[in-house]
Amino acid sequence: MSTTKQRTPGDLTVALWAMNMGLAPASAEAFIETAKTEMRAARARQADIMVMPEYVCESWLTFAPAGLAETAEIAWMAEVAQAILPELAREAARLDMLLVAGTVPVAVDQGYRNRAWIFTPEGQVLAQDKLSLTPDERDPEAWTLVPGDEVTLITWRGRRLAVVICLDIEQPALGARLQGLDIDLILNPSDTGRLSGHSRVFSCAKARAVELFCAVAPVGGVGPVPVQGERGNVSGAAIYLPCEAAFGHTGILAEQPAADRTEGAGRCLIARVPLRALHAARKAGGEVWLGAWSAESLRLNEPPICPN
């Protein structure tokens, strides 16, 4: 029988680490120490959840073996992750914090998947694979991955959470699939090399907050990875809510503007998310929100083209 103390569901404080991808750690140990420092600082500000960016592991390439081919990077990062992630999981448990440790490649039977590992302080280890891959993730001359095929729904401290990775937040079909599941908070690690990519991800994250009447928290890495042929990263962090008068009208709880450079370890956006009020409003109905709505019964009417 579980002895875990039951808590009354309440608000949660979320920390989004828009990490400096140009951090250039000298070793796995150096990265671990930097990550732990950021986790401790976030916890000191009452963070219950911390989210790192998609492909946080790309920053590790600064201590990769000399001459590592781009086609070999995925396998190398997957191997290094096996040493780094357990250390971060232990720190999350010590701090009583849920950690979404960015994403890393993971070997599966079909190849490699881009996976977000979720570590709860109670010791649970959960995973969410990216479902829709970018061209850069399907490039036989560089990174080649395979998509995931399921969505992990997490109940933690009385709240329903989901992790949606980068491009997946742009898929309306996924948003429709999540309707009616009573999700309170979506955590959205991303990796975007241009302002256009950042704009797509964050705009769609805001749309999902409206559609699903939940909080959505996107975050990405910032700055170029200092490897040959610098790989730029343009992003920031935000926490979006439904656009309701009760939540400040604009749908923006907190926002860190997009940037292509940053200093130190990067910036951490931390905010208390009003999940109790949000959950109650979702149950009661918003200003015009009708709840889960399906278009399956709609007929398509396409009149014939009039001749010239």
Question: Helix and strand layout, with pairings?
Answer:
Elements lengths: L11 E8 L8 H17 L4 E3 L21 H23 L2 E3 L3 E5 L2 E9 L5 E5 L23 E4 L2 E5 L8 H7 L6 E6 L4 H18 L2 E6 L14 E6 L11 E8 L6 E8 L1 H10 L24
Parallel strand pairs: 1-2, 2-3, 8-9, 9-10
Antiparallel strand pairs: 1-13, 3-5, 4-5, 5-6, 7-8, 10-11, 11-12
If you had to describe this structure to a student in words, what would you say it looks like?
This protein has about 300 residues and is α/β, with parallel strands linked by helices. It has a single domain, classed as Nitrilase/N-carbamoyl-D-aminoacid amidohydrolase, CATH 3.60.110. Helices cover about 25% and strands about 25% of the residues. It contains five helices and 13 strands. Strands 1, 2, 3, 4, 5, 6 and 13 form a seven-stranded mixed sheet that branches. The longest helix has 23 residues. It is globular, with a radius of gyration of 20 Å. The N and C termini lie far apart (about 75 Å). The mean pLDDT is about 95.
